[in-house]
Specification:
With 141 residues, this protein is mainly alpha-helical. Helices cover 85% and strands 0% of the residues. It has a domain of 85 residues.
Protein backbone atom coordinates (compact mmCIF):
# COMPACT_ATOMS: atom_id res chain seq x y z
CA UNK A 1 0.00 0.00 0.00
CA UNK A 2 1.52 3.32 -1.09
CA UNK A 3 1.47 6.58 0.82
CA UNK A 4 -0.92 7.98 -1.82
CA UNK A 5 -3.58 5.42 -0.94
CA UNK A 6 -3.16 6.24 2.75
CA UNK A 7 -3.93 9.90 2.06
CA UNK A 8 -6.73 9.18 -0.39
CA UNK A 9 -8.32 5.81 0.39
CA UNK A 10 -10.08 5.59 -2.97
CA UNK A 11 -9.66 6.93 -6.47
CA UNK A 12 -13.04 8.63 -6.04
CA UNK A 13 -11.52 10.90 -3.40
CA UNK A 14 -8.60 11.77 -5.64
CA UNK A 15 -10.91 12.40 -8.58
CA UNK A 16 -13.14 14.67 -6.52
CA UNK A 17 -10.10 16.59 -5.25
CA UNK A 18 -8.75 17.08 -8.77
CA UNK A 19 -12.18 18.14 -10.02
CA UNK A 20 -12.53 20.65 -7.16
CA UNK A 21 -9.08 22.09 -7.95
CA UNK A 22 -9.93 22.44 -11.65
CA UNK A 23 -13.32 24.03 -10.88
CA UNK A 24 -11.66 26.48 -8.47
CA UNK A 25 -9.11 27.48 -11.10
CA UNK A 26 -11.83 27.87 -13.71
CA UNK A 27 -13.90 30.04 -11.38
CA UNK A 28 -11.02 32.52 -11.07
CA UNK A 29 -11.43 33.63 -14.68
CA UNK A 30 -14.67 35.02 -16.13
CA UNK A 31 -14.39 34.63 -19.88
CA UNK A 32 -16.28 36.58 -22.53
CA UNK A 33 -18.29 33.47 -23.39
CA UNK A 34 -19.38 33.13 -19.77
CA UNK A 35 -20.26 36.84 -19.65
CA UNK A 36 -22.38 36.52 -22.78
CA UNK A 37 -24.07 33.40 -21.40
CA UNK A 38 -24.87 35.35 -18.22
CA UNK A 39 -26.31 38.21 -20.25
CA UNK A 40 -28.43 35.78 -22.27
CA UNK A 41 -29.74 34.23 -19.05
CA UNK A 42 -30.62 37.70 -17.71
CA UNK A 43 -32.49 38.58 -20.93
CA UNK A 44 -34.36 35.29 -20.79
CA UNK A 45 -35.22 35.85 -17.12
CA UNK A 46 -36.44 39.39 -17.85
CA UNK A 47 -38.69 38.19 -20.67
CA UNK A 48 -40.14 35.54 -18.35
CA UNK A 49 -40.68 38.20 -15.68
CA UNK A 50 -42.54 40.43 -18.14
CA UNK A 51 -44.69 37.48 -19.17
CA UNK A 52 -45.44 36.65 -15.55
CA UNK A 53 -46.46 40.25 -14.84
CA UNK A 54 -48.75 40.48 -17.90
CA UNK A 55 -51.96 39.49 -16.04
CA UNK A 56 -51.32 42.21 -13.45
CA UNK A 57 -50.96 45.11 -15.92
CA UNK A 58 -54.68 45.93 -15.83
CA UNK A 59 -54.71 45.85 -12.03
CA UNK A 60 -51.62 48.07 -11.85
CA UNK A 61 -53.20 50.61 -14.22
CA UNK A 62 -56.48 50.61 -12.31
CA UNK A 63 -54.69 51.08 -9.01
CA UNK A 64 -52.56 53.90 -10.42
CA UNK A 65 -55.58 55.73 -11.86
CA UNK A 66 -57.70 55.32 -8.72
CA UNK A 67 -55.02 56.48 -6.29
CA UNK A 68 -53.83 59.18 -8.70
CA UNK A 69 -57.40 60.41 -9.15
CA UNK A 70 -58.02 60.61 -5.41
CA UNK A 71 -54.75 62.49 -4.96
CA UNK A 72 -55.54 64.91 -7.82
CA UNK A 73 -59.08 65.60 -6.54
CA UNK A 74 -57.79 66.44 -3.06
CA UNK A 75 -55.08 68.68 -4.50
CA UNK A 76 -57.47 70.53 -6.82
CA UNK A 77 -60.14 71.01 -4.12
CA UNK A 78 -57.67 72.34 -1.56
CA UNK A 79 -56.13 74.70 -4.12
CA UNK A 80 -59.56 76.02 -5.13
CA UNK A 81 -60.52 76.52 -1.48
CA UNK A 82 -57.31 78.44 -0.78
CA UNK A 83 -57.99 80.65 -3.79
CA UNK A 84 -61.60 81.21 -2.65
CA UNK A 85 -60.39 82.10 0.83
CA UNK A 86 -58.38 84.98 -0.65
CA UNK A 87 -61.42 86.24 -2.55
CA UNK A 88 -64.30 85.70 -0.10
CA UNK A 89 -62.66 86.25 3.29
CA UNK A 90 -61.87 89.67 4.65
CA UNK A 91 -58.16 90.30 5.18
CA UNK A 92 -58.68 91.09 8.87
CA UNK A 93 -60.94 88.07 9.56
CA UNK A 94 -59.73 85.75 12.31
CA UNK A 95 -61.62 82.73 10.98
CA UNK A 96 -62.10 81.86 7.34
CA UNK A 97 -64.03 78.66 6.75
CA UNK A 98 -62.65 78.19 3.22
CA UNK A 99 -59.06 78.40 4.48
CA UNK A 100 -59.84 76.02 7.35
CA UNK A 101 -61.43 73.53 4.91
CA UNK A 102 -58.42 73.79 2.60
CA UNK A 103 -56.05 73.21 5.53
CA UNK A 104 -58.11 70.20 6.60
CA UNK A 105 -57.93 68.70 3.10
CA UNK A 106 -54.18 69.36 2.98
CA UNK A 107 -53.81 67.63 6.33
CA UNK A 108 -55.73 64.59 5.05
CA UNK A 109 -53.65 64.58 1.88
CA UNK A 110 -50.42 64.65 3.88
CA UNK A 111 -51.38 62.09 6.50
CA UNK A 112 -53.34 59.53 4.51
CA UNK A 113 -52.97 59.91 0.76
CA UNK A 114 -49.43 60.98 -0.19
CA UNK A 115 -47.65 57.81 0.99
CA UNK A 116 -49.93 55.35 -0.85
CA UNK A 117 -49.86 57.62 -3.90
CA UNK A 118 -46.06 57.64 -3.99
CA UNK A 119 -45.85 53.87 -3.47
CA UNK A 120 -48.32 53.15 -6.25
CA UNK A 121 -46.57 55.54 -8.63
CA UNK A 122 -43.18 53.95 -7.91
CA UNK A 123 -44.75 50.50 -8.34
CA UNK A 124 -46.35 51.49 -11.64
CA UNK A 125 -43.65 53.67 -13.19
CA UNK A 126 -40.59 52.39 -11.33
CA UNK A 127 -39.65 49.54 -13.66
CA UNK A 128 -39.72 51.80 -16.72
CA UNK A 129 -37.60 54.38 -14.90
CA UNK A 130 -35.05 51.80 -13.79
CA UNK A 131 -34.88 50.33 -17.30
CA UNK A 132 -34.37 53.80 -18.79
CA UNK A 133 -31.63 54.58 -16.28
CA UNK A 134 -29.87 51.30 -17.03
CA UNK A 135 -30.08 51.90 -20.79
CA UNK A 136 -28.73 55.45 -20.39
CA UNK A 137 -25.88 54.20 -18.22
CA UNK A 138 -25.01 51.45 -20.73
CA UNK A 139 -25.05 53.90 -23.67
CA UNK A 140 -22.61 56.19 -21.86
CA UNK A 141 -20.09 53.35 -21.42
Amino acid sequence: MSWWSKIFPSTKSADSLVKAAIDSGDALFYTEEEKEAGRAQMREWYIKLLGAMQPFNVAMRALAFIVGGIWAIHLIVSTVLYMLAVVICAPDAEVCRAAMAAASIDNQLTKHINSPFYLVMVFYFGAAGVNGAIRTWQEKK
